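Service request form, structural biology core

Requester: graduate student, group of Dr. S.
Request type: structure prediction, single chain
Budget code: on file
Notes: please return the result as structure tokens.

Sequence provided:
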Amino acid sequence: MMDFTLTEEQRMLKETVANFAAREIQPIAEEIDRTDTWPEGMWKKLGDLGVLGVTIEGAYGGVGLDILSGALVGEELAKISPSISISYGAHANLCCNNIRLNGTEEQKHRYLPRMCSGDQVGALGLTEPNAGSDAVSIQTTARREGDRFVVNGSKTFITNGVIADTIILYAKTDKSAGARGITAFILEKGFPGFSVSRKLDKVGNRGSETGELVMEDCIIPQENVLGQVNGGVAVMMRGLDIERAFLSTYALGMAEGAFAEALKYARERVQFGKPIASFQLIQAKLADMWTLIEAARLLSYKACILADDAEKGGKGTELHKVTAAAVLFVGEMADKVCTEAIQIHGGYGYCMEYPVQRFWRDAKVATIGAGTSEMRRLILARELLAG
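Core staff response, request fulfilled:
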């Protein structure tokens, strides 16, 4: 049996983050989107709040809570600003948590405290111009030269890539070995040969600094190998289920934010002499939206609980299936709910002055990023047929 009741600590965490988001992010959410800039000082504020190291042990600067707790932070942030939430997830999960899971003691002590405090920003460098869903076909190479590696290649669609100080980077160290020839590295922005080629101008999640990275004879010391040489796929796969669970709560929070806007508007908007919330077709939309959100919440939280159980040595029953199903269902749910929120707003929903349009634009990435809905269905089908 699985208990979906949040602990007192988790409820307090959600409330703390919700209050922070209302106070520090809500007043500037539209400006973040309009200017496509990350708010100055926000990383440090998140670090002071203690959320950047939610899943990181106290010895490395974090607070040592479970995966669901970390994902709950992303959910609360996404209710106000999906842009802040997705950057938080890339930092706290894709970078920090992967170093926690796979790094040496020296690596963890060196990198994690500064990222937990918000003094440095983390990112994950996997996707390339010609390697998206087919991640193991990456073309970035790393050749060993004595006690260092020389890296050449490029990465794209990298969340936080424009501003990141520390990047987990994947490269081919043995091109003939296919997936077994990939190595994960910890790249620092100051390493020779590394540069950011450009910031991407996106339709949604504006303010989350997404960029293209270039490595031209980039020098990475051997001690910055994360895991084993040619063992990068193990690092990648170990974090995938957690990534899917995290991304599902990001999409969940975004849908909740759009639903709140739609519910508020339906109560306030008057047509034919009464609020449109009194019209049955509007009521039906609101009922369906709420039901989808609550169904998604159960699947999303279950994915987080199973991922945490597997990390602690549990069997992780149906882990791959549930996390793939969660990110698939919740992502498509968010896309639908945000579209319905626009429909309830009518023409005003299509105007930039109403925040619901921001959620609508942001929602699409939930069916594209970190694996498309099509790939998630293939993964889920493969797991079902294997059983």
